[in-house]
Amino acid sequence: MKKQLAIDSRAKALIFDLDGTLADTMPVHYLAYRNILRQYGIDYSYEMFMSLAGVPAIGTIKKINEIFGTSLAPEEVGNAKEDEYEKIMHQMKPIEPVVELVKRYHGKLPMSVGTGGYRRLALKSLQIIGLDNYFDILVSAEDVVNHKPHPDTFLRCAELMGVAPGYCQVFEDGQPGMQAAKTAGMMATLVTDYFDS
Predict the structure, then answer these.
(1) How far apart are CA 144 and CA 1, in angstroms?
(2) How high is the mean pLDDT of the chain?
């Protein structure tokens, strides 16, 4: 039995990453890649997908070209993957331990979402997992110049919530996000320690 996810006693505001923290989107991203790459005769394994986790679509396609000796157009195939993801993203599931925490502290502490994803898809993800009415503040890829592991996303969240960074607790599933939170001087909690991802 995993220990329960908890709020640090010093925390006056909470910041949540989205993909892999609130929403279990990795299986959907994998499916999108598989569906698109199959059209080019590429059998994309889950192991290979996981080894490239966190790499943007265009970078992933460049890597696939290296591995398979193919000459796929990175922009074109990367965009096709993103379109496919949007078509099947309704299949994502909420990550219950983290979602429960959001519901428990809603209205008690200021909360925001800090994601490296695009605003339009982030809002759609929150809607799918039933959290669209829980957050007034969302900082997305379009809102900052430097993305994670830079602290800008989380510092912007703190600024919009009106809480000093030292009193913000960040919930993350990835090392770039954990680094961003620590650089911002915030409390950082790796959510994967609390559930089997």
Answers:
(1) 38
(2) 92
